[in-house]
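Renewal narrative, Specific Aim 1. Our central claim is that a sequence can be written position by position from structural information alone. The example that follows is taken directly from our test logs and has not been curated for this report. It begins with the structure tokens describing the chain, in the order in which they were read.
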């Protein structure tokens, strides 16, 4: 059965190592017949959450801020799978991706019970470090996020040892990302 997949690419590099993971995943998912929409967050005008608790009032744009999140909300609300893609920045995801995750709360505010739309989630991450310990803070954040939102983890791909643009070429993580996309 075809799924609707939304990829939030938090990398500031449009042709960087995270983009390589995103493309491999996308190719696998499309090969399996899924529909994939990629948002390159660096190119979008998205402001941080104001913490106003004023979201949810407008079904077309649930946030009081009117910026490029209006392009993401409709896809997010109807997605079967949400893919979070980011390079590691100081043992975490990028500010671009974190900002969007924070702003998704406006959709949760549409429900009086603060119900988050059911999602299945994937994490794709590139990093300079290449040890299991290196990825531990991100794994902890990702798993805590899923647990608190009630989302199901469909998989994680960590590409360590990739700092410079192009380091991802021929990296084994590309095959893992492709396979994960194809087997969603």
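The sequence written for that structure reads:
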């Amino acid at each position: 059965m075809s799924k609707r997949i939304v990829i939030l690419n938090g990398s500031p590099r449009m042709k960087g190592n995270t983009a390589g993971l995103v493309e491999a995943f996308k190719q696998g998912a499309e090969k399996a017949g899924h529909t994939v929409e990629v948002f390159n967050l660096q190119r979008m005008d998205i402001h941080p959450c104001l913490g106003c608790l004023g979201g949810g009032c407008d079904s077309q744009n649930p946030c009081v801020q009117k910026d490029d999140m209006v392009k993401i909300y409709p896809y997010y609300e109807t997605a079967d799978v949400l893919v979070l893609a980011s390079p590691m920045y100081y043992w975490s995801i990028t500010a671009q991706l974190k900002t969007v995750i924070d702003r998704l709360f406006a959709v949760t505010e549409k429900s009086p019970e603060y119900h988050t739309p059911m999602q299945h989630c994937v994490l794709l991450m590139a990093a300079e470090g290449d040890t299991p310990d290196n990825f531990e803070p991100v794994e902890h954040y990702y798993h805590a996020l899923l647990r608190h939102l009630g989302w199901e983890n469909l998989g994680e791909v960590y590409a360590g040892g990739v700092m410079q643009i192009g380091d991802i070429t021929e990296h084994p993580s590309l095959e893992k990302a492709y396979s994960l996309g194809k087997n969603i």
